[in-house]
Design brief:
alpha/beta; 11 helices; binds coenzyme A; six-stranded mixed sheet; 256 residues; 2-enoyl-CoA Hydratase, Chain A, domain 1
Length: 256
């Protein structure tokens, strides 16, 4: 359980709300644990047919809590709630709908690659800042993003690591539709309700069939990314990047 993640099951939809407004919904280890547990519980609960993930209308999530990255880095692939969340979302059987407004940084973008329907507000800002943080991509995004968006689009997003808007996200193929901010959550809920009204076995089997061909490749990419990610996290480039964020200054990579 986490005070910053609200989980509620209603009308066959398990809703997972990220709720840490003062830190732009940055995800702590407790929050990852609560989200992973909610996904596992959703799969196990016959009453649940669809999962809905959202943050605030003006902020989805600023990604992994950078203080946690510095203070509580994972030491092995099996250790670490962030890795557990990522692995879990990649193999969750029930369909996942996401509603994204404002910042969707790091895992805030990579988790979307594992969702079925992604609705985004016009102001949504996506970013994959792994390289600029001295890290490497996670959640199999180094495999999935080139596969979904094409190599050059993925290279721009992952290597230059700059924020981008809904037009690029739509063109890249991981946003389903742009919805005005004040209608975003209701639209996502209605879509989730639409999915929940369909024959549940057919929905889940169709999801499984669509993901079948890339299951092993996703797992393999996550394992390789995870190994490099942990190494990079312990390295001087990541330390400089994250320290600079909290000191509100530009990082200096000239010495590496
Ligand atoms: N981890 C920890 N704290 C974070 C955070 C993160 N990922 N993102 C934001 N915060 C905190 C800030 O430190 C600040 O805290 P403070 O009020 O105690 O100083 C607060 O949230 C507000 O953030 P701020 O940067 O002032 O908001 P903004 O609207 O100017 O910018 C972002 C929003 C999301 C663009 C910016 O916060 C950001 O780039 N965050 C880091 C994203 C990141 O690198 N995530 C890791 C991905 S792997």
């Amino acid at each position: 359980m986490s005070a910053n993640v609200i989980v509620e099951t209603k009308s066959r939809i398990k809703r997972i709300e990220i709720d840490r407004t003062d830190k732009k919904n940055a995800l702590t280890l407790d929050m990852y644990a609560a989200m992973a547990d909610a996904l596992v519980a959703a799969d196990a609960d016959g009453e649940v047919r669809v999962i809905l993930i959202h943050g605030k209308p003006d902020c989805f999530t600023a990604g992994n809590d950078l203080k946690d990255f510095l203070a509580r880095p994972p030491h092995s692939d099996s250790e670490g709630e962030a890795f557990r969340f990522i692995r879990t979302i990649s193999i969750t059987k029930k369909p996942i709908v996401a509603a994204v407004g404002g910042a969707a940084v790091g895992i805030g973008t990579t988790m979307l690659l594992h969702c079925e329907l992604v609705f985004a507000a016009p102001d949504a800002r996506f970013q994959l800042p792994f390289v600029s943080l001295g890290l490497v991509p996670e959640a199999a995004s180094s495999f999935l993003l080139p596969a979904i968006a094409g190599y050059q689009r993925a290279a721009e997003m992952l290597l230059l690591a700059q924020p981008f808007g809904v037009d690029k996200a739509l063109a890249a193929g991981f946003v389903t539709e742009v919805i005005p901010e004040d209608e975003l959550l209701e639209h996502a809920r209605e879509s989730a309700a639409g999915l929940a009204a369909l024959p549940p076995a057919s929905v889940q089997l169709t999801k499984r069939l669509m993901k079948r061909s890339r299951e092993a490749l996703v797992a393999e990419a996550m394992a390789e990314e995870g190994k490099l990610f942990r190494e990079r996290l312990a390295g001087p480039e990541a330390k400089e990047a994250m320290t600079a964020f909290f000191e509100k200054r530009k990082p200096d990579f000239s010495k590496f």
